[in-house]
Structures are given as C-alpha cells and as structure tokens.
UniProtKB/TrEMBL annotation:
Residues engaged in binding Fe cation: H256, D258, H312
Name the UniProt record assigns to this protein: Fe2OG dioxygenase domain-containing protein
Cofactor(s) needed for function: Fe(2+)
Cofactor note: Binds 1 Fe(2+) ion per subunit.
One annotated GO biological process: oxidative RNA demethylation
Example GO molecular function: ferrous iron binding
Keywords of this entry: Dioxygenase, Iron, Metal-binding, Oxidoreductase
PANTHER family: ALKYLATED DNA REPAIR PROTEIN ALKB-RELATED, ALPHA-KETOGLUTARATE-DEPENDENT DIOXYGENASE ALKB
Family from the record: Belongs to the alkB family.
InterPro entries (alphabetical): Alkb, AlkB-like, AlkB-like_sf, Oxoglu/Fe-dep_dioxygenase_dom
Length: 358
C-alpha cells in the first residue's frame, strides 16, 4: 500500500500512476559552485490541483463555486463541499480548530502508538512503549536479553524466538555487544499505528482476536459529528477502528481502496494534521484520471457510498517552510513541552482515518 519506487514502465501504466508520478517529489541534481552535487526539488505544476481553501474563501465572499463543486451543509461547523461526479465524497476545509489539531498531533505521537495498538515497528521489535518520550530523551532501543555470541550472526538473531527490545541510555549500553537502534530513528520511521480493532496488513483484514482498546472517546465523538453530512437522516456512525498514517519528507501513500469494512455506506472520516499534502481521488478503475486536491492541517474528508470504491492516495507532502502551511501550529505549539511535537510536525504530516468496521 505504501509508495515504493517503480520501474518506468510500471509507473506510467495507468492514469492513476501517471498522476502520482506528476506530483511526486523528485530532485534535480545541479552542480554547485564547489562542484558538489546539490539536490533541489524539481518544480511541479500545481495549476490543476483543486484548492478547497480558496474555494471556501470565494464562496464566503460571493457565494460562487467552481463548476462541478457543490456545497451541502452550510450550517455545519464549516461549509461541506461535494463533487458532482464523485458521489459520496465530501471535503470540509478547516474542520478542526487549532487546539484540536494540536491535541491530535500530541496524541498521535504519544498515546496512539502505545500497545496494545500496533505499529509498523511491531513486526521487527515487538510492542514498543513510549517511543516519543524515548526519542525525546535520546534513548536507544536495545535487544535486551540476548547479546550476540561470538558464533552468531545478525541473521541468526532474526530467527530467535526470545527477541525482546527495551529502551536504554547510551551510558547503560557501554560495552555490551547487542543490536541497537535509536528511538529518534524509529520515530522517524513510524509509518502507521492502529486504534480500536487492529488491522492485519499481511492479511489485509481486521483481526478481532488481537488485543485492543476502544478508540479514544473524544476521537469517536469527533468522527461521529464530522460523519453526519455523509449519513442519511438519523443513521448512526459507530466508529470502531482507526488507522493513523505518519508521513515524512518524500513519503507517499500509493493508490488504493479502503475495502475491508463490511458496510460501505458508512463513511471513512479522514483528518489531516501538519504539512500540506496532495490527495488524489480517482475513480473505480486505476484508468480513471484522478482529481488532485490540497489537504491542509485541519481539513476533514469523508468517503462514503460510491466514493468508497474510488482509488485514492497521497503522492506528495510539502515539508518546506513556504509550502507546508503550518504557521498556525507554529504559533500555538510554543510551550516548552510542545517543542518536540513542533519539531516533528514541521517536517511531517499525520492522517487519522476513522472507520466503522461492522
Ligand atoms: C488513506 O487513504 O488511507 C489516507 C489518506 C490521507 O493520508 O489523507
């Protein structure tokens, strides 16, 4: 599901792939004055990217909308936009207050990746407690109970059954001959965590036998509120799972369908935090040319009904100061305790998508 380099033929095979390639981050390598290669992001043509923030501004000023865009619930938290040719897709620009964005960023880095919630690190390291705090304190994750013996190779260790990793400090490690990885590297490599019912990525389904907590009450309530425009009168949204995606510079989320839930009439509520991104909304085939749109911190997207069958993905995030558009977070995350969150989010994006599975 996550983006990887594809060879040229493959990357140009479908309309969706071509759009991903158009917006993906590539570098130009220019010789600098000292004759060293200096890499610069290749310029990308953003003229066709739909910008719901500008659409909202125009709508507020003169109630005019671009063709194909309709406004649904004018009296909702903020106007809800829909697309004539993509029934079931809804965009709520600036749905989350700055306070809410900050608290969700904090939770996404501290509480959400805590066991029993699983993360992409589980497969290699087992459950990891307090990764964010460990990164802040400069700790190392060390394979605790089984130093390498002289006759073992690292490959042998991968097959041991007694793997157990624990955080320690550089000092405690001193001369021990163990495998280590720094917590800050692991934090940078955190790609997903799952809340509520746990998703098994290898089987691409929810594994109800895995230990799990309910999704946090506040997130549950928020998603119920936001889901309303996508639900016919009185139908209840009962979120029981969420996937949190973490994106750093150059990370992408390849075109995919979210098709593992039993009832597609229920929306997926998808929240954006941190650096601005480009979202591609395709059709039911990868051959359908996708629509590109900006996602900014605080935006919410709903995908329900027909739109649940549409390919979608994130080919680009903008981590540079000029384009990330996180000034409002920089002015709010100023407390000493928030500096680490700010540092993280200045070059990252977090997406929380909340689902009703059954
Ligand atoms: C997803 O489609 O699963 C996530 C989309 C996003 O990152 O906004």
């Amino acid at each position: 599901m996550y983006g990887t380099e594809n060879n040229r033929d493959d990357s140009e095979r479908t309309a969706f792939r071509r759009a991903e390639k158009k917006y993906k981050l590539y570098y130009d390598y220019n010789a600098s004055s000292k004759n060293k290669k200096k890499k610069q992001p290749k310029p990308v043509d953003l003229a066709e990217v739909l910008d719901f923030r500008s659409i909202l501004e125009c709508y507020h000023q003169n109630a005019v909308l671009p063709s194909g865009v309709i406004v649904l619930h004018d009296k909702f938290t903020s106007p809800v936009f829909a697309l004539q040719n993509r029934p079931g897709f809804y965009f709520i620009p600036g749905a989350l207050s700055i306070e809410k964005q900050c608290s969700l960023i904090r939770e996404s880095l501290t509480d959400f990746p805590q066991p029993p919630n699983r993360t992409n690190h589980n497969a290699l390291y087992g459950p990891i407690q307090d990764l964010f705090v460990a990164a802040k304190e400069g700790k190392l994750l060390v394979e605790d109970n089984s130093p390498i013996t002289s006759s073992e190779t690292y490959a042998d260790i991968d097959h041991r059954d007694d793997k157990e990793w624990k955080f320690t400090t550089e000092k405690d490690m001193s001369l021990r001959k163990c495998r280590t990885v720094s917590a800050s590297v692991l934090l940078r490599k955190l790609r997903w965590s799952t809340l509520g019912l746990q998703f098994d990525w290898s089987k691409r389904n929810y594994d109800v036998s895995l230990p799990h907590n309910k999704i946090p009450e506040a997130l549950c309530e928020l998603s119920k509120q936001l889901a309303k425009p996508a639900l016919p009168g009185g139908v209840e949204f009962r979120p029981d799972a969420a996937i949190v995606n973490y994106f750093g510079l150059g990370d992408t989320l390849g075109g995919h369908l979210d098709d593992m839930e039993a009832d597609w009439s229920k929306p997926i509520v998808s929240l954006s935090l941190g650096c601005k991104a480009i979202f591609l909304l395709g059709g039911k085939s990868r051959e359908d040319t996708p629509l590109a749109m900006f996602l900014r911190s605080g935006d919410a997207v709903l995908m329900a009904g027909d739109a649940r069958e549409c390919f979608h993905g994130v080919p680009r995030i903008f981590t540079d100061k000029e384009n990330a558009e996180i000034g409002h977070l920089e002015t709010r995350l100023t407390h000493e305790d928030d500096i680490c969150f700010l540092k993280y989010i200045q070059t990252s994006r977090i997406n929380i998508n909340i689902r009703q599975v059954f």
